[in-house]
Specification:
Number of strands: 5
Strand order of the largest sheet: 4-1-3-2-5
Distance between the termini: 34 Å
CATH class: Alpha Beta
Length: 94
């Protein structure tokens, strides 16, 4: 079995009010990663994603562009310890 990893991500740009969180959840479910995504008060989007290296990298690649109306200016990633989470949810704003 492939090793699992978990990454904390913040995304800057025009990423709120454009369906970014729900599109991220849809992509995460398609790819098979677990975790969560939410809006931050400062206009960024925050997420934690967990899966194999290949799965996490695939979602991170998608997140660098996001849905059609989004304009991603920067994405920051920090690797954290896997938690064995299940599912992928859109959380309340943080």
């Amino acid at each position: 079995m492939d090793a699992m990893k978990r990454v904390h991500v913040t995304v800057e740009g025009r990423v709120q009010g454009v369906g970014y969180r729900y599109a991220t959840r849809s992509e995460a479910l398609r790819i098979g990663v677990t975790g969560w995504v939410r809006n931050l008060a400062d206009g960024r989007v925050e997420a934690e994603i967990e899966g194999t290296d290949a799965q996490v990298d695939e979602l991170l690649t998608w997140m660098r562009t996001g849905p059609a109306w989004a304009r991603v200016h920067a994405i920051r990633e920090t690797e954290t310890a896997p938690t064995g989470a299940t599912g992928f949810e859109v959380r309340a704003d943080g």
